[in-house]
Each structure stands twice: as structure tokens, then as C-alpha cells.
Amino acid sequence: MDKGIAILIAEDDAGHFQLIKKNLWLACVNNDILQFKDGQQILDFLLKTGDGPHMDETKQYIVLLDVRMPKVDGLEVLRRMKDNDKLRKIPVIMLTTTSESGMIEQCYGLGCSCYMVKPVDYHRFMEAVQSLGKFLSLEGLRLPSIRPSGN
Amino acid sequence: METNNPKEESDSDGRSSVENGLMLSNIGEPDESFDRLTITRFCLDSAGEAIFWIEANAHIVYANETACRSLGYSRQELLSMTVHDIDPGFPKEAWPEHWAQLRREGSFTIESVHRAKDGRTFPVEITVNHLKYGSQEYNCAFARDITERKQVEEQIRVSEQRYRTLAENIGLGIAHVDVDHNIVIVNSAVGAMFGRDPYEFVGRKCYTVFERALGACHNCPGDEAIRTGRPAEMEAEGVRSDGSRFPIRVQAFPLFAADGTPTGFIEVAEDITERKRSQEEIEQFFNMTGYMACVASINGCFTRINDSFEQALGYSREELLSRPYLDFVHPDDKERTIAVGEENLAKGDQVIGFENRYRCKDGSYKWLSWASRPVVEKGITYAIAYDITDRKLAEEAAQETQERFSDFFMNAPIGFHIFGPDQVLIDINQAELDMVGYERDEIVGKKKWTDLIVPEQRRQFEKQWRDITTKGDAKNFEYTLVHKDGYRIDVILNASSRFDEQGNLMNTRGSVLNITARKHAEQARNRLIKELEAKHKELESVLYAASHDLKSPLVNIQGFGHELSQCCDLIRSALAGKEKCENLGKAVDIAINEDIPNALDFILTSTKKMDALLSGLLDVCRLNTTAVKIGLVDMNTMMADVTASIEYQIANAGATVEIERLSACLGDPSQINRVFTNLLTNALKFLSPSRPGRIRIDSRNRGNQSIYCVEDNGIGIAPEHLEKIFEIFYQLEPGSGRGEGIGLAIVKRTIDGHNGSVWAESKVGKGSKFFVALPRA
Amino acid sequence: MNKDGVILIAEQDHKHFDMMKQSLLRSGVSNKILHLADGRRTLDFLSDVTQPPDGEHKSRQYILFLDVDLPEVGGMEVLEKIKADEKLSKVPIIMLTATDDPQTIDRCYELGCSTYMVKLAENDDLEESIKKIGHFLSVVEIASIE
């Protein structure tokens, strides 16, 4: 993956975050990984509000989103992102414990790129995250630009 | 005296010589002739007959004493009269003819009528003789008064006519046959009977003609009558002229001469074809099987019975005829049987339909229905009976069935009714009366089904009525009856119709089952099911939430467990000295000091989390099993208790709690306590750091509820969370240590269980209000 | 993706499809893989799928690999139309195309594609890529269209 691509992970559980990060690294994903502890934080980043860090529009991003998060949950983040002209292009991958079909449909309905369930079994967890990592590492993968190139 | 051939004798003088002439012819001597004359004169005078001497001119010249006496004239008178005077029927004009006839025939006898002096007429038989005495011609007439003889003749004639009339018109054949079986005479009826002219019979043998037999019948009644001297009879077959046969009944009466010798016999023959046919017909009827026919006498015995009688009762004919019929009658029926005999039969009244029991030979009894026809004059009764035992048994059975049905109808625990074609009630049983609360006479004949049901169902019934009256039945229709007292009863109606032969509706019968209890039970059950479903759903969602929330820590436990194991591998290989790497020491160092503690930390935290979640889960579930004990809750004392128990937390948070005057409610005190404890602790958790926390609790009434409000000035809750906060495990800020998200869930479930409601209003940054509605005390 | 799910490949070149299919199968994918040769067919197939169920289309889960260059109806139009349909919008669409134009890429993401993959020239790499994609698919959840 292009070094310029940053992976935004909105995950409230510190342990989950660590495990995800490790397995992405094991899948040879070396890109910047930004951690957000709740929905509000990532929204602030993306919408460039609040006190925390803000998004760089020249960069390309992939978002990994947990559904259950404090303050603003993943579903709401997804909704707001897809409502936003600039942000809607950013591919959002739901990565969450919930496998409830209603939730899955809702997320796809809102326009997520795909939905992944965190398996409890660690080997499968590793397999899932590393698959994701390898997928994201594919040479052919193309991401959109926030600000159209040439501007 | 010879009168037949009068000798012609000459005579010297007139009459007296003529008188004497006759006598003189036979006398020899003149002295002797005077005696003889006197004797002769005496004879003449005294003769029983009237003697007349009549001249050719019809004058009477001599009449004897008898003549005078019979006519009532004196001799003088008579001697002056003519024949015509004494014989009124003999006209003068007829005399010459008569005299001519006299001359011609000399003597003949005629009948005529004499008239006496007193005008009395009487029939006479006159023998006239022509006498010539010298030149004189005389008619010597002997006249006999034949009045008696005429009378006798008349009697005989009348008698004969009577018998002839009888014989001709009797319709019976009458034949007079002599001892040799020759037919003397037959009447026309015989002719008609045999198809012949009656004269053909005369002179022929009776057996030839009547029976076409060659000899006398062996049991000829005529012979028998003659033999016995009494009438005899037999039945035989006559043969008509055309060869056809017919049955006859012959009675013979013997005829005897004066000396007792038989002269023959009278046969009276009757064509008994009709009678035989009638008899046969009667016999046919009489012997018809299946009907017991009999003739009984006035003395109470059967005199004649047909075969069916024997067969039906099993006795022999002798047995039945030998005893009074009352002997066979059932003891309980004897009195009635005697009564009907005395009151009806004895008076000559027909009795039809009288029923009694007769004992059979085997001891059993049969019911018989009698039709009896007495003929009082003959002292007999004709009767037929037929066996109605089966019918009686059927009647009894029907009676019993009827009683059983009636009993059942009346006393069955479900309602029965009968409505007429006009929908008006005809009959109703007790159970249904009880259902509607009316007395029988209040509704029978007065009310219709539509009067008993709730008004809104009347249209439904009109539709159903159409079904009932056309198809014949209607099943399982639900109706609501209105009791007399006004309350409602749910029932199920099953109705069926009865039609007459023309297809017209006679009545509809229905059963009415009270399903009120059942309906209530159904409703209660449905309610329970709904409740259970709701509870089930809730539990499901709880479980669901739990399983997800438990997964999260498990991911960490597994993941960091793996990490731990990797660290151990590293250390192991380091210790084993297998790996030679510059950074091995560093790596081990990192492992021991960073990775392992890190991993352990995560594992422990996760297990704690899981433990807390499970406890919370159990807590919520326990709410289900704990019974709610409703009582009066004094909210003021209770809130005081709550605040007292969390005094420490309140102080720690630096908050103040204000409690207004609270109205009482109905609920389980301990559970209500928990609710408000949770609400208060919640409020304390979400206080704003920028201002001192203030919590206020008040209540107001609305309808039959008390609504309590726990208000805080904390950080508030965003609108999207307001509903979700009551969900189990929902946390506003997970990981912030502010509980496991079950407090509010418990609040909601508890209040739901009290039939109350709980909701929240909030403004972010300003504060929140939690409302609890509970039944007012 | 559950085993009932169907992988649709809208690809003009049949040989490419075959190769892709083989690679997917080798990656352990056991789902049905269907070839849709042009845009019209792709749209028709998917619209049939939304009709009341008949024996043919039992599955409710679909994932579509879409080439931009399609005859009849172009890939972009297909993407647009699918994402405009209420029921079909939930079908994840992975663009798999030779086109490597940023504008096209942006446009596709804008229209709502899941990800954009460029088919690289060397076949070996492509096969490897497809295999990785296959692995990824096996860990991904797909929505059912109803």
C-alpha cells in the first residue's frame, strides 16, 4: 500500500486495537494507523472539528470502524460520513463484534464498503485481520482522493 | 133312485102320476104301490137335496121339502115360480138353449146360484135329468146347496193360491216328488235355478234332473225325511242345463197319506252359491292370519276362533274354547274387560280399540287391540284382535325415551331451546333460563332469540336465520346474551331445523353453551401469551446484548492469551539458548516487562468485565423471578431511606439533593427503593464537572398515576441516546467506569412490572429529567 | 460470505473470467461464480433477482466484481443504477478493471463502490491478487437483499 495511505481505526477497546494493529503489521501493512477511542473523536478528525488532530485532505484514508462506541457510535459515524460530500468517498470497513444481520444490512444500506465480524477465536481473528491487511496491501487497490487532484 | 136313464112311461093323469110315475115303474101291485108311494114320497120329500120337477116352460111343478126349505118359499109359492125366479143368473132367453141341451144330453150337471125368498143367494150344483112321461117332458133337477162346498173350494183355492204365490215367489225351488222319486210338480224357481222350463221336470226322476245322477242320492233327504218322518236336509251340487254346477241346500219334508203311508216329499232347494261365496269370503276373512278373529257368547266364552288365535296365544283350540275368556286376561286388565263387556257389549255398542293383555301358553303376555261387534239378540259378539305387543313395547320405549329426553332437556347443564318458525320461543330448559335470568313464562311464547342477544349481533343472526331456515342447521355461532340483570354472557349456539313434509319450517332446536368462562380464560391466556412473548423477547434481547458484550472481552482474552504464549515461547527459546540474536536479550526484556504485563492486564480486565456483565445479567433476570408485592409506598420515607443509603456518594460528588413533598404510590417497596437508588446514582455519575451537582425530586398527579421526577443539572444526554439508555448494557461512556449499563435497564424492567412507565428528557450540557409513573395510592 | 452467496463477475472477456474463476476456486472459495458478459445482462440479472423467488435465484447474497469497460451498458452506469436501486444498493461492488484513471476512481467511489481494483498487466500477479481477494471474501459479511 502506498505509504501515504493512512488507516483510521475507530475502536474503543484498547485491547482490540492492539490486536488489530499487530495483525495488520503481521500482514505487512506498515502504514500509519490512527486510533480513535470513540465516534466523536473520529468525526472531529474527519470534519476537522474539535481539539484533536484533523484530517489532511491531500492524503488518502481507509476507515476501520467499530459499531459500538461511546459518544457517537459507528453507525452514526458511517451515516455522517456518507452524508458528507467529501467524506463519502472514503471506504469504510466495519470491524465489530456484532454479527446481527439487521446491523449488517443497515451498514451496507448506509454505504459501508464491507462488514467484518471480529471472531472470538484468535486464530480466526488473526486470519480475518490479516486477510484484510493483505487485501488492503494489494497493488491494484486504488483509493479516492478527498480533494480532487489537480486542485 | 135311478135318475140316469129315465124310462119313458105312459101315465094316465097329470102331475101326480108323473110324481108317481117314476116310482110306479118299479112297483108291481097297487097296494104295494101305495106303500111304496108313501115311502117314495117320503124319500123324495126328505131327500137331502132339493128336488124340482120343471116343465119345458121352466115352471116348477114340484119342489120337495128341502127345496122349499133351502129357498125359504112355501111349496105353494114355489109351484107358482119359474126357474128364473129362483136362479137369478139364469135369464129367460137362455132357457131354450138349456132345454135343448137337456134333450140332447139327457142329463148333466151345472153350477148355479139360487136366490132365497129373503134375497140371500147361495151357490148350488144342479143335476138336471130329461124325463119324458107320456107326452110330457120334464126336467128333474136335483139341486145341492154347495155353499159349504164352495166355501171349502174357495178356501182350498185361496189356500192353493197362497201356496202357489209363495211357491212361485219364494225364490226357493220347490218340488213335489213322489216316493219313487218322480217329480210331480216344480215351481218356476226350480226352472230358473236349473235353466229349464219347469214343465220339463215333471214326471222325471228327481236325481236325474237335479243331479244328473243315475240313481237316487245316497243321502237323499227325501228318503230320509220319509224314513224319519221329520224334515231332512243336505247340501249338494245341482247341475244346470248348461252343465255348470252350483251348490244347493236341499230340505225335504215328507208327505203322508191319511193312513200314514208316505206319498212323497216336498223338496225345498236353495241356490246357496251366493251364500257359499259369502261364507267363503267370511272364512277367508276369518282365517286371515295376523288377525285373531273370534265369536264369543254372552256367557263369556269363545265359541269360535280362527287359527291365528291359537297361534298367537299358543293354546290349542280346545283349551281356548273350554274356558271363559276372562281366564286368559291379565289380572290388571280383568276389571276393565268386564266393565267394557257390561257397559258396552251388553248394550249392543260396538267397541273399537279396547286394549288388554292375554296370557300366552308360555306365561308371557301379549297386548291385544280389540274391535268387537255385539249382536245382543243372538247373545254373541263378533270380535277381531290384533297383536299390538310390539307397538306397546315401542310405545313404552318411546315413552321412556320421551321421559329420558325430557329429563335431559330440562336438566342438562347446557342450554336447550326450541324456536318456532316465527322465531318466537316455544320451549327452553332450566340451564338456559338460568343463563338469561328470566322465568319461563316471561319468555316462552313471548320473546325471540334476537330479544335475548346484544343488539349489535342482530344483523348477524338475521343472516344465520336464513341459513337455518334453508340449509337446516347452523353450527358454532358465537353470540352474547344479555342477562335480565344486564350483564353479558358469551355463548355458542348450534341450531338445527325441522321441516314438515311440504318442506315448511316447523321449528329450530338449538343448544347453547356458556363459554363466558372459556372466553375469559382465552382472553387471560392470550394476555399471558402476549406477556410471555414480550418477556421472551426481552430476555432474547438481553441475551443477545449479553452475548455481544461478552464477546468483546473474550476477543481480548484470546488474543492476549496468544500473545502471552508467544512471549513464553520467546523466553523459552532464549533460555534454551537456541536462538542467537543480538536483540534477544532486549526482546526478552520487552517481553517480560512490557508485553507480558500488558497482556495480563488486558486479560484480567476482560475477565472482570465479563464477571460484571454476568452479574448484571443475573440481576436483570432475577427481576423476572422476584414476585412483586404490591403495597402502599410512602414515597417520602422511602426517598429519605434512599438518600441515606447513598449519603457517601452524594457527599463525594459534592452534590445536593432536594426532595419535595411526594405523593404515595402502589408498588413493591423494596423494588421501588432500588429504582430510585439507581436513578439517583445515575444522576450522580453524570454530573457536570463545571458546576456543583443539584438533584431535585418531586412528584405530580395525573389521572390515576403519580409521576415522579428526578432532575439533575449534569452533562445531559444526547437525543439519540435517550431511548437507548434504558437498554441493557447500554453505556453512554463505556470504559468510563460508570457502571455496566444495567442500572437503567433494571429501572425500566421494574417499573414495567409495576404497570408504570419511565422515560427521560434531557438537554446536552444542561441536565436531565427522569420521569417515573406509578399507580397512585 | 455464507455458502449460499453468489459471486458475480461482470467481465467482457470470457478468458479473463475463467482465469478469475479458477483463482477464486483455488483460494478456497466454494460459492457459485457467475459470468455476466455485459452491462445489460448484469442489470437484467440483478433485477430478476429482486423479483419474487423462483427456483433459479435462491440466494439472497451477492457480491459483484464489475469491470468499467462493459459492452451494452458501461460499468459506471451499471454501478450507478445498482446503487440507485433500494434493494440492490446493499450489494457490495468491487470494481475490477483495467482503467486506472483517478477521475474514474473517484467517480466510482462517489457512486458507492466498495473498493476499486486495477487489473495489473502481469498475469501471475493478477492471479495472486484474485486469490487474496478470495481469502478476503471468505472473512467478509454480506448483506442479504430482500
Would you kindly provide a written description of the structure presented here, covering whatever features stand out?
The complex is a heterotrimer of chains A (151), B (777) and C (146). Chain A is of the alpha/beta class. Chain A is 38% helix and 19% strand. Chain A has helices at 14-26, 39-47, 74-83, 101-110, 122-136; strands at 5-10, 32-36, 60-65, 92-96, 114-117, 141-142. The two termini of chain A are 24 Å apart. Chain B has six domains: 15-145, 2-Layer Sandwich (Beta-Lactamase); 158-275, Beta-Lactamase (2-Layer Sandwich), CATH 3.30.450; 287-393, PAS domain (Beta-Lactamase, 2-Layer Sandwich); 413-514, PAS domain (Beta-Lactamase, 2-Layer Sandwich); 521-611, no CATH class; 627-775, Histidine kinase-like ATPase, C-terminal domain (Heat Shock Protein 90, 2-Layer Sandwich). Chain B has 25 helices and 27 strands. In chain B, the strands form six sheets. In chain B, strands 2-1-5-4-3 form a five-stranded antiparallel beta sheet. In chain B, strands 7-6-10-9-8 form a five-stranded antiparallel beta sheet. In chain B, strands 12-11-15-14-13 form a five-stranded antiparallel beta sheet, sandwiched between helices. In chain B, β16 and β17 form a beta hairpin. Mean pLDDT of chain B is 84; it is low at 1-25. Chain C is an alpha/beta fold and 146 residues long. Helices cover 42% and strands 18% of the residues of chain C. Chain C has a five-stranded parallel beta sheet with strand order 2-1-3-4-5, sandwiched between helices. Chain C is globular and about 35 Å long. The relative contact order of chain C is 0.21. Chains in contact: A-B, A-C. The interface between A and B is medium-sized, with 23 and 24 residues. β5 (114-117) of chain A pairs antiparallel with β6 of chain C.
